[in-house]
Amino acid sequence: MAAIKKEAPAALPGQPGYWAEACKHLARKDRVMKRLIPQYGDAMLQSRGDAFATLARSVVGQQISVKAAQSVWDRFAALPPAMTPAEVLRLRVDDMRAAGLSARKVEYLVDLALHFDGGKLGPERWPEMDDEAIIGELVAIRGIGRWTAEMFLMFHLLRPNVLPLDDVGLIRGISQNYFSGEPVSRSDAREVAQAWRPWASVATWYIWRSLDPLPVNY
Length: 218
Known about the structure:
Blueprint: H1 19-29, H2 31-36, H3 51-60, H4 66-77, H5 85-89, H6 93-98, H7 103-117, H8 131-138, H9 146-155, H10 168-178, H11 186-192, H12 200-211
Helix pairs in contact: 3-7, 3-9, 8-9, 10-12
C-alpha cells in the first residue's frame, strides 16, 4: 500500500503560504538553517494586515532595541482611539514626546500620516510592484529609509526574498551563527545569504530568532 503523503498545513490569514517550502529549501542548502529551523516549531512571519501601522512601528523601532521599541510603541499606540493616519494627525506633539518618541520620530510619524491621509501613496498597486519599486516609493517619505522599507516588504507584504543588510540584528546573528562571533562585513553577510535565495526573508527571520526568543513583528 502506498504511503500517504502528508500535506503541509494551509497558511492562515496573515501568514506566508510559502513558509514550508522555504524551510525545506533552506534546511537542505544551509547547515545553520538546518539547525535553527526545527527549534521554533510552526512559528513564522506574520502580517498584521495594516500598512500604516506596520510602517509606523518600523519608524518607532529605528535604531533602538526590539524591547525598547515595543515599550515605546505600546505607550504611543495608547494615545489615539485608533491607529489610523487621521487619528495620529490629531495627536498633540507633547503627548507623543511623552510616550518616548524623539522629536525627529514625531516628525516622521506625522509625515507618514500625511502621506496616507492625503492619498500620496498607492497601496492598492503594491501587490503588483516589485520590491525595488515599492522601496523607491516609500523612501520618498521623511524618515523612511531602505531598512524601514525592507521591514515593510517582509512584515506587511510578506515578500520572500528580502535581505536587510542594514539590519544590526541580521549582521550580529550571521556573526554568531556563521563566524563564531567574529566581526562580519556586509560583503560577508551577502556571501552567506547566497545559499538563502530565493527565501532570504525566511532565513533572516530565523537569524533574528536565534538572538531573541520573542519573534520580531511590525
